[in-house]
Prior knowledge:
Elements: E1 2-4, H1 7-19, E2 24-29, H2 35-47, E3 50-55, H3 65-70, H4 75-84, E4 89-91, H5 95-98, H6 119-122, H7 126-141, E5 145-149, H8 153-165, E6 171-175, H9 195-200, H10 203-216, H11 222-235, E7 238-247, E8 261-270, E9 273-282
Parallel strand pairs: 1-4, 2-3, 2-5, 3-4, 5-6
Antiparallel strand pairs: 7-8, 8-9
Helix pairs in contact: 7-8, 10-11
Amino acid sequence: MQVVDNTVALRTRIKTWRANNELIAFVPTMGNLHEGHLSLVQKAKALADRIVVSIYVNPLQFNDKNDLEKYPRTLTEDINLLSEQECDLVFTPDDSVVYPQGMSEQTSVHVPGMDDKLCGLGRPGHFDGVATVVTKLFNMVQADIAVFGEKDYQQLLLIKKLVADLNIPIDVVGAPTRREDSGLAMSSRNNLLSDTQRLTAPLLYQQLMTIRTALENGETDLDALTQAAQTQLRESGFEPEYLDIRRADDLRPAQPGDRTALRILVAARLGSVRLIDNILCDLA
């Protein structure tokens, strides 16, 4: 496995693979890797001949400076994990490589229709930061396939729209959310939870499952379902940011009686830790 921190070395290796007609898959990450990230690498290995993983904590997508400063940096441990996964190349650029003119002078990529709902409302500027860095990484790596987790479902849809709108020649593939035994969605932020909070955090997933079961049993009062779930979360110590039922293909609000694929999505703080999760409810 090769580790590179600049685009010259990156593209030299990519050029060699291209000359051999090898299919390349790309997994962008911000490091602090866990089993959820590794499942994306495994998905990529099933789809391509060569695997590139990037590790870069992108300042542009953090609307909270304290959140950026607290984000765990574990590069040595991450590289060791990826080596065990037989990853081919790890790209570890710094800010000077990703934003050579500085972030204040950086061209920004905006994907319409995502900043006015769900995580877009609570994190102003976040999705522009995501769209900008993903576009840059796609151009740097020039892979055939990119793999993203479904845990960040709104982000996944944003990237699919970005690729379609800008005619970027890459196939974006979603991979299922990996969960701890408790049901809690795996996340780098889970490491910030106290032991007591870890016992409470799985309630997020449990409330999503409760709503899905009710929908599958014919319940059509969507507001009552989401309000009841948020009440349960508050009583358990969460501060819900949103809990909503949306159409899975475009995240438009679900309507009573919808017989289609829905996503039940939640974001909530437990103490200072912001957690997100979602599950599919296919009523088609």
